[in-house]
């Protein structure tokens, strides 16, 4: 068992779960109904046990007289066990549905949120392991919370009717349990927050380490990193053990408070029995009823305290998911239309030949736009803003950005597809501000080759097909691959492009751009260092393949290569 965090700032029950997680509200209803039935079983069971003992020992009743009550007691105990298992089943069912719902909402939201600064390792840990902790919350904590609200009230009411002094003692001592619980909770909160941070740090660190292992090995730093991971996990273990110690101590304190309170009730009732205040079979039955019921009044409250630590991890994770859901999403637009793969044969000839001259689908911008950056400034966290830029990318022409490394060329391109937002200034397509345009429409109108194309596990053909939202025909993919001089369609690619050279990966990226241009006919092409890793002959061939696609489109290329600069209609040293 690990305890990650106890930071349920939403209190014992986070109302956002009701709104965000379908299934939470009905489950609470089920919990309340089962809790009422369980409270009734507790009281009926205590009444029957007290009656049986008093009848057998003080009333002198024989087995025949006691049998109906014995059967009733068995039925009550059976009903209590059945209610507990129904509760367990309902809890797991509800938790599974609620976790799935929260994961789906979070993933959908993440897809529409700029990813700046988010650690993929920590996000994965949150959505998988973090949300799994909600099991304890729904299966253990919440049912006890409902019982804690119902059972003590019912028990005190029955005790009040049976023997008011005992009810008074319970009433006075009962608040001690939540009071101690709150004090312990306050004490552990800061520790628990640090614990979650340690978990997130560990997940982040580990993901980074795995990604960078080859480089670390090359620099002889792998062993040192194992030491760093050892130190982080050691720190995590120490924090976990310290939190567990607090959890065990808190259980002990709550147990002690409850036991002392029950002892006071027992002594009071015992004195009355000896003094004759509770005389005869009826007196013994009342005394036993009070003695059996008294611990039941404290039990749910103690259980709430005991399950608080385990369940708080789930609540803290849910809270972080709510924080993700509260982040402003990108402007929503229509989903990309699926391309209709033409399968039209490529015009034969050189690699410079167009894949197909007939676009299968029109995009929303019918003509190539003029793109303007007007006094645009970009800022990244932790560093000063990039210099202000004002530049115009003329419509239907090829512009090459030749600014020095680090000047912000990739940033400008990422901004055109909505992955970066200027801190000040504006971007316009023709005369319309980008912020007034539907982002999905803008993205549909652009084919973008990023500096480091993301490649996924699969074949080259599967990677190229990712360029369009729907299925692309095999001939169209094959033509794009051939024109870009990318590796064979059936060549395997591992995650992150492992198995391909940097130049081959760049050409798979270019094949994507050509496929998209072929099938979606976007009026804007953005290419970030398209030939950075290529030899001069391959570079020449790739630029020739691109030539037919530049015609009539607004093309922006970031590059310092002379061959690329040679094809430019305009060069900008922004
Ligand atoms: N995610 C980021 N967080 C912080 N700083 C960043 C981030 N991305 C880019 N930068 C910084 O912004 C500046 C511009 O980066 P950008 O990649 O746009 O430059 P570039 O002109 O494309 O460089 P290059 O020619 O080397 O590819 C750089 O100084 C870079 O360090």
From TrEMBL:
Its main location: membrane. Pfam families: ABC_membrane, ABC_tran. The keyword Protein biosynthesis does not apply. Residues 332-353 are annotated as: Disordered. Signal peptide: none annotated. GO terms for molecular function: ABC-type transporter activity; ATP binding; ATP hydrolysis activity. It is found in: Cell membrane. Gene3D superfamilies: ABC transporter type 1, transmembrane domain, P-loop containing nucleotide triphosphate hydrolases. It is a multi-pass membrane protein. SMART domains: AAA. Residues 371-572 form the ABC transporter domain. Residues 30-313 form the ABC transmembrane type-1 domain. The chain crosses the membrane at residues 24-57, 63-83, 145-163, 169-187, 246-271, 277-294. The keyword rRNA processing does not apply. GO terms for cellular component: plasma membrane. This is Thiol reductant ABC exporter subunit CydD.
